[in-house]
Hints:
The complex is a heterodimer.
Chain A: H1 2-20, H2 25-35, H3 40-64, H4 70-91, H5 96-117, H6 123-126, H7 155-172, H8 177-187, H9 192-216, H10 222-242, H11 248-274
Helix pairs in contact in A: 1-10, 2-3, 2-11, 3-9, 3-10, 4-7, 4-9, 5-11, 7-8, 8-9
Chain B: H1 7-37, H2 41-71, H3 75-94
Helix pairs in contact in B: 1-2, 2-3
Amino acid sequence: MVTxxxxxxxxxxxxxxxxxxxxxxxxxxxxxxxxxxxxIRQAIGTSLxxxxxxSTASSxxxxxxxxxxxxxxxxLELATALGAAVMAYLVGYFNRDALEGLFAAFLLYSSITIxxxxxxxxxxxxxxxxxxxxxxxEETSSDQAVIPPYEPKRYPLGLAASLAAGALSxxxxxxxxxxxVPVMYIFMNVPLMVATATSNFMIGVTAAASAIVYYxxxxxxxxxxxxxxxGVFVGSLLxxxxxxxxxxxxxxxxxxxxxxxxxxxLILHLLRxxx
Amino acid sequence: MSQVREPExxxxxxxxxxxxxxxxxxxxVAGVSVGLFVTGHIPLDIERAGVLLMLATPVVRVVVACxxxxxxxxxxxxxxxxxxxxILMLGSVFGIGEH
Lengths: 275, 99
């Protein structure tokens, strides 16, 4: 009943991802590698499909709220897609141990970062009240968010950071939202609501750029990707509905716990290979 | 420039994503359910179709945005979209590997 397990796994990853804003790819790759016995490179390729699914489903919702900056997203995608495609190509030359080691390091790093921030960053609450009067924005219907006028700044910096985020995505099979959002918000002067929606929007193309390379190399296992994507789809849609009602702090601790566990297991797995 | 909101544009792109996401979901559900009763290449082929549609959805999204930018005579962003499309295409050429 591997299929049923995969659907449940995808569901949980999608749910956690939507609730915490940390994509499911971070969890899926190591679980596929450790508990389903898939070589890590194919685990990365397979989890990329789930990453595209999440981004596609959720950014269609963001687009309807008109919070996505398609022009900014498209510009930065030049860099993320390039970084992702090139890195995905290079991954073909990496050996398994190097990839597992890199992944374990990334898991440890991100769980420690989350612990340090400890629920302080909660995007929707952190949104600054706009200093500009609201008459400046165009017509606002009931379901349309009010966004203060802004002009993205420091494009070179944004593009450089996007290149790195894309490369990381191609290397580890993750979305890279936790990098893109702060870059747009802090460095490029983009309102947080727009940065979040635009990052989500970009993840689909970024992940597709590397997933295409993985697919051509035979590193996407469709019999695993399909049930995972089914679960992720349902999980992330449910998570998006539940998000306003769930205490993210508890969920975040749960996520950090799982990430530590996976990092530890990856390191053990590596050590066992060497001894 | 960047903060110009075009509801029509957003809606068109959102439709592409929605069709892609729901289309894949149903194809993959079909593949997985068929796989419960039938073994062999049939469920695998259906699942492969779902995965390929999922990979194609972001590409189609770029194509549609590119078309819309050029139709609006927004040359700068039209060319940028074309650049993104080119990178995506290159990926599928370089991905062919002997690894």
